[in-house]
Amino acid sequence: MKVFAVNSSARTGDVSKTEIILDNLVKGMREEGADVEVINLRKKKIRYCIGCFTCWTKTPGKCLHKDDMTAELFPKYQDCDLCVLATPLFHYTVNAQMKTFIERTLPIALPFFELRNGVTRHPARHEPPPVVLISVAGFPEDSVFDQISSYANYLFGDRLVAEIYRTSSEMISETSTKKAITDIFEATVQGGRELVNNRNISDETMARMTAQITDFEQMAPIGNLMWKTCIDEGVTLGEFQKKNMVPRPDSIETFITIMKIGFNPANADNMKTVIQFNFSGQVKGACYLAVENSSLIAEIGPAKNPDLTIDTPFELWMDILTGKADGQQMFMDQKYTASGNLELLIKFGEFFGG
Ligand SMILES: Cc1cc2nc3c(=O)[nH]c(=O)nc-3n(C[C@H](O)[C@H](O)[C@H](O)COP(=O)(O)O)c2cc1C
């Protein structure tokens, strides 16, 4: 099977969630012997369709633009057995690069009108390939893809072999070890295998590929903190992700959320310990983190019998958490105090390094 995959994301590597999903699908296709070529629109020169219809009249089947679409991409689109279109969801639909690519496939149609399934269509000059559509979106609800799905179904009709929609895209990462994410990757590889072998993706595999990984209640507090940190630190989202920056909590509730996300169960094996924080300064109050057998309970309020109690200005601890201040140095400088099992202070970074 000759597969032509078109990636319209402007981003690349671990930052591009379109690329991550596409890479996994392509991996599965190649495993089953497909001849897959991936092209990235960001590297190509493609002019807008100017609506002159030259490709329908003066030079039938050929666009007047002399660019990468005419010379390379359109012939590959015509020749493939399957075309994979992978696009970020921008303003609820395909992004502009993908739309430009799609518009420039016009020479594949003839100008005449015909009635197909009760609606007006143009006949094909050359049989267009079946299409698999991939799209990734930042929001967590499946309904975010309603418009792109409606568009793709109307446009491609029976040629649309599969629609792969990944919500909460910014939560996925190539290097993630979280089970939910690695299962999505494995399922996407499997989806690629199935496309080559069966020309479709089973409901079971599709359900795993598109499984919900978060919802508004989980995503919004951490997402909002992340954006606020990017603004305060003057960094882009890409820089934030590449530098492994930590969203800076602004309340005890968000501190607890961050600690839960950063908890590293593998390093807390066979541990049973309770750490209490007494915060002072701009944010006042207590909370505790109870680690037991690789699980974490984090609650507001004082603990009954803490093994370690940390009394600290809230902002200072957030400086330590986000790597702006050195925890040991701050302790030696008596900027905060700790009582109980001080060894846990050293271990803290191991428990919460995730
Ligand atoms: C201009 C723009 C518009 C976007 N529109 C939406 C949107 O309508 N719905 C949504 O859930 N995410 C939206 N997003 C988020 C992207 O879909 C998300 O960040 C995705 O991971 C981008 O793809 P990439 O990782 O391959 O760059 C938008 C992002 C940008 C930059």
What does this structure look like?
- This protein is α/β, with parallel strands linked by helices and 354 residues long.
- It folds into two domains: 2-209, Flavodoxin domain (Rossmann fold); 234-351, Nonspecific Lipid-transfer Protein, Chain A (2-Layer Sandwich), CATH 3.30.1050.
- Helices cover 37% and strands 20% of the residues.
- It has helices at 17-31, 68-79, 96-103, 146-156, 179-198, 203-209, 216-233, 237-242, 252-262, 314-321, 327-332, 343-351, and strands at residues 2-7, 35-40, 82-88, 114-116, 119-121, 131-136, 160-166, 272-280, 285-292, 295-300, 308-313, 337-340.
- The strands form three sheets. Strands 2-1-3-6-7 form a five-stranded parallel beta sheet, with helices on both faces. It has a five-stranded mixed beta sheet with strand order 10-9-8-11-12. Strands 4-5 form a two-stranded antiparallel sheet.
- Strand 9 (285-292) and strand 10 form a beta hairpin.
- It is elongated and about 85 Å long.
- Flavin mononucleotide binds next to helix 1.
Keyphrases for this structure?
single chain, 354 residues, alpha/beta, Rossmann fold, Nonspecific Lipid-transfer Protein, Chain A, 5-stranded parallel beta sheet, 5-stranded mixed beta sheet, 37% helix, elongated, binds flavin mononucleotide
